[in-house]
Write a structure and sequence with these properties.
Length: about 190
């Protein structure tokens, strides 16, 4: 019988402990701590998101340039990457095959391969019009001669000083048409 009594006592103790919970004060303190942690984390999260968008934008530009190069070699004709409004890369860009040989992406003969829409206002992109010939070489858009390395800069314009330098990406197009990206703050050959 002692054994049954011990089991009954354990069950009663278990039920008594399982009925306990948080008091209102414990709950309010927990909520206050979580709210304070969120207030500290929110600005960092915003910066983290913008930095992720910066890397994504640089990668999209890199992909656009590589797409233009591969289309030029695949089709055996020039392909170009140009800003949508002809001067401001931050408003987006277009990749097209220049069948009409006029450098105009809106010409009906030309084939639009892909386009990038406008970027958020806290990004600035600077660069140059890029044309790839049928061999995949980067050529100048004003004459048929090959061009030396050209650089695009993608940066956050809502930062200043060293923070801005840390959050800058470069996309480099070399003479052979090879495209690469780098981070000037950490890459010595950028």
């Amino acid at each position: 019988m002692h054994w049954f009594k011990a089991v009954d006592m354990l069950e009663m103790k278990f039920h008594r402990n399982s009925m306990s919970g948080f008091t209102l004060i414990e709950l309010l303190i927990t909520v206050a701590i979580i709210a304070a942690a969120m207030m500290v984390a929110a600005p960092n999260m915003s910066s983290f998101m913008r930095n992720a968008e910066l890397s994504s934008t640089a990668n999209n530009l890199l992909a656009s340039l590589n797409t233009a190069r591969s289309e030029a070699m695949k089709r055996g004709m020039n392909a170009m990457v140009k800003p949508v409004d002809s001067t401001n890369w931050s408003k987006g860009w277009v990749v097209f095959v220049d069948k009409a040989r006029n450098g105009n992406p809106s010409d009906s003969l030309n084939i639009t391969v892909m386009s990038q829409g406008p970027l958020p206002e806290y990004f600035t992109v600077s660069g140059f019009n890029v044309k790839f010939d049928a061999s995949g070489f980067a050529v100048a858009t004003t004459s048929p001669t090959h061009v030396p390395n050209g650089t695009f800069t993608v940066e956050r314009n809502d930062l200043t000083g060293t923070d801005r330098t840390k959050e800058t990406r470069k996309v480099i197009v070399d003479l052979t048409g090879r495209v690469r990206s780098c981070k000037p703050a950490t890459d010595s050959d950028c």
